């Protein structure tokens, strides 16, 4: 991703893509003192920009550092970098991290940085998989307890187990992995939240040790607007056989249907497809000022 034309917003200025670099002794690289966001721009408007920028600020605070830019400045910088690259539809990746002023676990003297990149990113799982529905492995790595790591932070360090799980799934021919939490309850996929359909209602795990995704909350709102009951609760893997359908939600993944989880099979279509269409209409239909 480092060798292309375009611009990346970096600590207050637009830098040519190939020059948006950091030093090898950056604290974040050694000790995972980095937090990031992921959002999509549709028809020139970033969906839920405020919420993403706010979560970025909160994620950094949970790791003990303050981003030296205000919410308004981060929003403006996001729009600026999208415009500078000439995009109307793209994925946006803000990242904040501790710099290279100090080595060792302690990082009080490091300078916080912020960069925002954007690029074209089609269907997260690819168009072919999207049509058939995803096949998920059950990961052997588990989401940590909230007393083990700051699980409400979109912290780079927490993605180590996601990459491990995703690679293990891919090695077995799966598209992604379902991760259980430390109790053995169903948690989420490696970069998206999970929903299940049963008897006309939606069931989704309570987000008490993983991200309460912005897409997740949006889809809950869309379901309720359709009069669909949404039940947030602890879900155990043994229950998989009782669910008729399943899908996942995320800013990159949007609403993606699931065809298989381990030994269990699901119907692709119905309520999940309807909510995917509702989500697509919502993110594309909004006005610039909404
Ligand atoms: N869980 C994980 C691990 C994720 O990476 C994401 C994507 N940010 C989500 C859930 C969904 O969050 P959102 O809908 O806010 O993108």
Automatic annotation (TrEMBL):
Its cofactor is pyridoxal 5'-phosphate. InterPro entries: Aminotrans_IV, Aminotrans_IV_CS, Aminotransferase-like, B_amino_transI, BCAT-like_C, BCAT-like_N, Class-IV_PLP-Dep_Aminotrnsfr. Its EC number is 2.6.1.42. The keyword rRNA-binding does not apply. One of its GO terms (biological process) is L-leucine biosynthetic process. Keywords: Amino-acid biosynthesis, Aminotransferase, Branched-chain amino acid biosynthesis, Pyridoxal phosphate, Transferase. PROSITE patterns: AA_TRANSFER_CLASS_4. It catalyses: L-isoleucine + 2-oxoglutarate = (S)-3-methyl-2-oxopentanoate + L-glutamate; L-valine + 2-oxoglutarate = 3-methyl-2-oxobutanoate + L-glutamate; L-leucine + 2-oxoglutarate = 4-methyl-2-oxopentanoate + L-glutamate. It is an enzyme of class 2 (transferase). The keyword Amino-acid biosynthesis applies. One of its GO terms (molecular function) is L-leucine-2-oxoglutarate transaminase activity. Acts on leucine, isoleucine and valine. PANTHER family: AMINO-ACID AMINOTRANSFERASE (PTHR42743), AMINODEOXYCHORISMATE LYASE (PTHR42743:SF11). Belongs to the class-IV pyridoxal-phosphate-dependent aminotransferase family. NCBIfam families: ilvE_I, PRK06606.1, PRK07544.1. This is Branched-chain-amino-acid aminotransferase.
């Amino acid at each position: 991703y480092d060798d292309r034309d375009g611009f990346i917003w970096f600590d207050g200025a637009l830098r040519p893509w190939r020059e948006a670099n950091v030093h090898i002794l950056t604290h974040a690289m050694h000790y995972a003192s980095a937090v990031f966001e992921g959002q999509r721009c549709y028809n020139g408007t970033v969906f839920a920009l405020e919420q993403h920028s706010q979560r970025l600020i909160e994620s950094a605070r949970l790791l003990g550092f303050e981003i030296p830019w205000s919410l308004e400045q981060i929003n403006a910088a996001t729009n600026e970098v999208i415009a500078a690259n000439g995009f109307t539809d793209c994925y946006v990746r803000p990242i904040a991290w501790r710099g290279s002023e100090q080595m060792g676990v302690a990082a009080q003297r490091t300078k916080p940085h912020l960069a925002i990149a954007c690029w074209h990113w089609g269907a997260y799982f690819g168009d072919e998989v999207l049509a058939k529905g995803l096949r998920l492995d059950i990961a052997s790595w588990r989401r940590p307890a909230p007393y083990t790591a700051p699980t409400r932070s979109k912290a780079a360090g927490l993605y180590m187990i996601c990459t491990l799980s995703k690679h293990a799934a891919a090695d077995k021919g799966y598209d992604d992995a379902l991760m259980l939490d430390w109790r053995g309850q169903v948690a989420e996929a490696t970069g998206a939240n999970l929903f299940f359909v049963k008897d006309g209602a939606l069931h989704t795990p309570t987000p008490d040790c993983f991200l309460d995704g912005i897409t997740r909350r949006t889809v809950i709102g869309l379901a309720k607007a359709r009069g669909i009951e949404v039940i947030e609760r602890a879900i155990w893997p043994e229950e998989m056989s009782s669910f008729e359908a399943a899908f996942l939600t995320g800013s990159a993944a949007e609403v993606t249907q699931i065809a298989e989880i381990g030994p269990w099979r699901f119907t692709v279509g119905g309520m999940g497809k309807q909510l995917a269409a509702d989500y697509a209409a919502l993110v594309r239909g909004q006005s610039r000022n909404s």
